[in-house]
Structures are given as structure tokens and as C-alpha cells.
Specification:
The protein is an alpha+beta fold and 538 residues long. The chain contains 21 helices and 13 strands. It is elongated, with a radius of gyration of 39 Å.
């Protein structure tokens, strides 16, 4: 029993050689391990907390599965009769609700200051979506914020928009549909082009030349061979009619092509009614007499009804974060439909699940039951890149900060080398008295284990303490005018944190093992020293 306790007893003796509370060597070694474990525990918990908080916010308002109808090569089609499909989706196991989905961009204006903003249409009759937005509201800086948008022009904006425009609850802003700019752009592009007679002069000249040639008479009808028909029809249709030309010019070309389409078909070509040749020539000649200014005026008058700007009232401000991409504005579904130019239609169906983490299997089941042409996008797919970015950031932080513990272990190894050199005469005495090499090794390994255990324990405890009182620490830093975790950037009043017991245990055990290994190396060399030389202090 005495031989087994000899190494541990001597290890304790070496840790406080002067019978003080702690020796300087012990304090330095423990502090290095403590700081390494402390930093890793705090950083791991904060990174895990940020990931958890972002996901919870994201899942509070976003569809867990988004269904879109894309029958033609992946191009999404607006849905007018979506309610029947939504009712069928609700019957699928695991589905909590299914409602309309709209997301688009608009131009917002506040006191003649404008900027583009993304918006998301919310079905205000879906309580889970409303509750998700309500949980994000910033009641501290924007007291009275509400998510009760109803069906009126009442909106909830992000704190980023609120700060940029100095607007809060009760403020008003104008919203301009981005679809208006698309129509204006289309008109601008058409009216900027030269008239057809100038832009496609060579094509028209060739067609007129073919029309001027005598056509073969067959009874009371006129015959035109297939080669000549193709030389007239194909250039006009493919090179002019299918291009973006002015509507009056397109109408002239359409009448010309209809005359050809109405001709009778024979093996070698087409049979036209008498006078068709003159009719085609006269129609084509109308292109030479078009008035560009009148046509452009007609086009401008013929613009589809523009979506008038909507004046909306801000009833809530939610905490936005630069860490996650969220809509600038939440608005009721009818207002979103108007601004998106959908006129009662929707872009897709928003499906919310009882368990969001079952989105993938539920999406497979939905695809199995829905007709061909539907496609499903889960929140995991949508948040996948960002989630992977957070995970990579965590891994990089672990990798970088783990070097603190590794440096502490090397420092302990250096200290233990120094201790073994200082104690070489005592080591020589122990060997002369019959101490086995294993006992000598255990003396110093026990020191490393004790230091590693105490450092890991204190580091873990202090790390948990920092996490518990992180809000108070932030408040102290803010009093000195320094805030490394600004709310305006992160979107959090208090730095989020989430404790993962297994990760904390791994860090503590890793620190203990590294310290034990660090102590073993100098202990091994000390055990191999010559007793006689050690006693001569060589």
C-alpha cells in the first residue's frame, strides 16, 4: 500500500514545496490550462447559441417546406387555384398548416429617401406565422411593437430599416411595386428601337422583290412555290415578328402572315385567292408609312395598369441580424399580392410542420402525392449554406483556440523538465533507495494529472460562470463605451449561448489528457538518469 501511495504523496509534496497554498510553478501551470478551457467553453457555447437562435428565428416565419408549381423546365408559375392543393397538403401526416407564399422586392420611400427592400407576405390568419414574428419583435427599443397586421396596409419592418430611416412604431412609408419598373423598362426598350422599315430594311427589300415577281396562274387562283413561300414567310416571322417590335408594326406583320396561312396547300406550294399578291404588297407597304411618334404614344397609352404606391403603417419592428438574411418587411397577404402584381395569385404554398426537422421526409411524401410539375424546397435546403458556414466557423474557432490548450501543455512540459532537473539529486536518492523507474515516472505524471484536472475543472466552472453572467459583462463593457457584440449587428440584446454538455466534456478531458502526456515526457527521461551522476549533481 505504501509503494502505491509513494508517487502520489511525493507529487503533492512537489506541488507546494514550501507548504504554501500554491507554488508559483503550480499557479502558472494551472492558469494556462484554466484559460485554454475557459476560452474554448465560452466560444463553443456562444457559437452554438448563435446557430440555435438564428435557426429558431428563421423557423418562426419561414415555410418549413415551400411548394412551387414549375411545369416548364423549372420556371415557377403563379398559382391562382392553390387552395384546393393546400387542403390536400394539410392531410399529409406531420403537416401543421399550408397557406400562400409570396416573396418579392419593392421600392420603399420615407420622406423622399428610397431604397429597395425585400418583403414577405404573411397569412395573418395563420397564428403560428404571426406568433413567430411576434417572438422577434424589439420591445426594448421600439415599445408597442405588434405583429397583428390583419388585412390592412400594416407592416412589420426590420430594425435595420428602422435605423436607416429613423422610423418606429406608428410611422408611415410608401411602397412602390417593382413590377412597374419592369413594364416601364419594356416600353423604354421598344420605343428606343428604330422602326421596322429601318431596322430590317434588307429583309423587307428581299420580300418585296419576291412579291413583285409574277405569280403563276392556275385557273382563278395564284400559285407560289414552296421555296418562294419560305423565302417570304420565314424571314418575316423569325427575324422580325418574333422580335420585340412596336405593337402597331407587329399587327401589320400578323395580318400579312395570316394571309399566307389562309392559302390552300398543294404538293409544290400554296394556292392563293386572286388579288392576294396585291393584298400582301399593300399590307407590307403600310410599314413604310408608319409614324414612329404616334406608335410610341399609343404604346405609352397602352401600358397595363400600374400598381399605385401603397402607403403602409409600421405597427412593429423586429430584431434583424446581419448574421442571417431575413426579409426587410412583413406584410399581409393581400398587400403582398398587389405589390408583386399577382392579382389574387400566389407564388407557392407555405407548409409548416409539427417537427421542422422532419422537413426532408415530409417533402418526399408531398412529392409522391402531388401531380407532376410540383417541386418542394425545404428550409434545410434554403438555410443549408448558411448553416454549413456557421459549422465551419465553429470548427475553425475550435481549431484555432485549441492551440491555447496545446501551448499550455507544452508550457507544462517545459516546467516539468525544469522540475526534474531541479530534483535530479532527489531522483538519484530515490533510485539509490530502490525506487523503480515506474514510480519515478508516476511522481511527475501525477503532478501533470493533478494540474490538468484542477485546470480543466476550474476552466469549465469559470466558463459556465461567464456564460451565465455574459449579459452583465456586456453591460459593464457598454458602460465604458465599448461593445464588441453590438446589437445593431448581431440583432441580440444579450449574446446568445447554448451549452452542449458533450462538447464541454470533450474539452475538459482533452485538457486533462494533454497535461498528463506533457508530464510523461520529462518524467520518462528523468527515470532513465544515472543515480550516481545525479548524486554527484552532474
Amino acid at each position: 500500500m505504501a509503494r502505491r501511495s509513494f508517487s502520489l504523496m511525493l507529487a503533492w509534496r512537489y506541488l507546494n514545496p514550501r507548504r504554501a497554498m500554491l507554488s508559483a510553478v503550480t499557479l502558472i501551470s494551472v492558469t494556462g490550462v484554466l484559460l485554454g478551457v475557459l476560452v474554448l467553453v465560452v466560444v463553443m457555447s456562444v457559437m452554438a447559441g448563435m446557430e440555435k437562435e438564428v435557426k429558431e428565428r428563421f423557423l418562426g416565419f419561414t415555410p418549413h417546406v415551400r411548394l412551387e408549381f414549375a411545369p416548364f423546365g423549372g420556371f415557377r408559375e403563379p398559382l391562382t387555384e392553390w387552395r384546393e392543393t393546400a387542403e390536400e397538403v394539410k392531410k399529409v401526416s406531420g403537416v401543421e398548416s399550408a397557406t400562400a407564399f409570396i416573396q418579392d422586392y419593392a421600392l420603399l420611400d420615407v420622406d423622399s429617401r428610397q431604397r429597395p427592400a425585400s418583403f414577405r407576405g404573411i397569412d395573418t390568419q395563420n397564428q403560428s406565422q404571426v406568433d413567430g414574428i411576434a417572438a422577434m419583435l424589439d420591445q426594448e427599443d421600439h415599445a408597442g411593437s405588434s405583429a397583428d397586421m390583419g388585412l390592412d396596409n400594416r407592416i412589420v419592418i426590420s430594425s435595420i430599416i428602422a435605423n436607416q430611416f429613423g422610423i418606429t412604431v406608428g410611422g408611415k412609408m410608401s411602397l412602390y411595386s417593382a413590377r412597374n419598373f419592369e413594364q416601364v423598362k419594356h416600353v423604354y426598350e421598344i420605343t428606343s428601337r428604330p422602326p421596322v422599315r429601318e431596322e430590317f430594311a434588307p429583309v423587307l427589300a428581299k420580300v418585296k422583290e419576291l412579291l413583285a415577281k409574277p405569280w403563276e396562274k392556275r385557273g382563278e387562283q395564284l400559285f407560289l412555290g414552296s421555296a418562294d413561300v419560305d423565302a417570304i414567310y420565314i424571314p418575316l416571322y423569325e427575324e422580325i415578328y418574333q422580335k420585340e417590335v412596336r405593337d402597331p408594326e407587329k399587327e401589320i406583320l400578323e395580318r400579312f402572315l395570316k394571309v399566307i396561312d389562309s392559302a390552300g396547300t398543294v404538293d409544290e406550294g400554296l394556292l392563293f385567292e386572286a388579288g392576294a399578291q396585291k393584298q400582301l404588297t399593300d399590307i407590307l407597304a403600310e410599314l413604310d408609312t408608319t409614324n414612329v411618334e404616334q406608335m410610341d404614344a399609343a404604346i405609352l397609352k397602352g401600358i397595363k395598369e400600374l400598381v399605385l404606391p401603397k402607403e403602409a403603417t409600421v405597427i412593429g419592428v423586429y430584431k434583424a441580424s446581419q448574421m442571417a438574411l431575413t426579409p426587410d418587411i412583413f406584410m399581409p397577404l393581400p398587400l403582398a399580392q398587389e405589390l408583386a402584381g399577382l392579382k389574387g395569385a400566389v407564388q407557392g404554398i407555405s407548409v409548416r410542420l409539427q417537427d421542422p426537422y422532419q422537413a426532408t421526409p415530409v417533402s418526399y411524401e408531398l412529392m409522391r402525392q402531388l401531380p407532376e410539375g410540383w417541386q418542394a424546397l425545404t428550409w434545410i435546403d434554403e438555410l443549408g449554406d448558411f448553416s454549413r458556414l456557421l459549422q465551419q466557423q465553429r470548427i475553425m474557432m475550435y481549431f484555432a483556440l485549441s492551440f491555447i490548450i496545446l501551448v499550455s501543455a507544452f508550457s507544462m512540459m517545459a516546467v516539468m523538465f525544469t522540475v526534474t532537473i531541479q530534483k535530479r539529486r532527489e531522483i538519484g536518492v530515490m533510485k539509490a533507495l530502490g525506487a523503480a523507474p515506474g514510480q519515478i515516472i508516476r511522481v511527475f505524471v501525477h503532478q501533470g494529472m493533478i494540474l490538468g484536472f484542477v485546470g480543466a475543472l476550474l476552466g469549465t466552472g469559470l466558463g459556465l460562470l461567464v456564460i451565465e453572467y455574459r449579459g452583465n459583462l456586456q453591460a459593464v463593457l457598454r458602460q465604458f463605451g465599448y461593445d464588441p457584440f453590438a446589437k445593431a449587428f448581431l440583432g441580440f440584446d444579450v449574446l446568445p449561448a447554448h451549452l452542449v454538455p458533450m462538447e464541454i466534456l470533450i474539452v475538459a478531458v482533452a485538457a486533462f489528457v494533454l497535461c498528463s502526456v506533457a508530464a510523461f515526457v520529462p518524467a520518462f527521461f528523468a527515470s532513465r538518469s544515472d543515480a550516481a551522476k545525479s548524486l554527484r549533481n552532474l
